[in-house]
Amino acid sequence: MRKPKVIISACLLGHLCRYDGKTKKTKEFEDAFKEYEIVPFCPEAPLFGTPRERISVIEIDGVNRIITDETDKDVTQLLKEEIDSFLEKHSDAVKAVLKSKSPSCGVGTTPILNEKRERLHYGNGIAGDIFLERLVDIKLLDENTMRLSSSTTKSIFL
Questions:
Q1: What confidence score (pLDDT) does residue 4 get?
Q2: Which sequence spans correspond to the domains of the chain?
């Protein structure tokens, strides 16, 4: 019998894939999901390498965009394509645990900034939004809460 599949942010599994080349490894995930097939997920590392320039969620004319912090490059479309490609291969996942506060993975915890880089509110990273939109039947968690309120506000990346 095949194990159910869980997608977990790769940095939580010990992969050195964060923008700063570090990890956020937490042993609890290996223990909590030992009955699952664990699929590591990081949409940024394959595109931009590690270490890399930080990115932020910037609201421009009411639309969230992913912008690099130093070079001010819009990488929203590149990330959308990477995430879509990943989800095509793993649409059978039953759970996902994403990194909180991440411009890629956060769900309800990611700072949404204005064009002056001032915090407007908290919302979702781009993968958080796409997971909520495309994987409606899975349980979506983050490493802090291990649960997600169904009242989480969705923002839309166009």
A1: 94
A2: 5-142
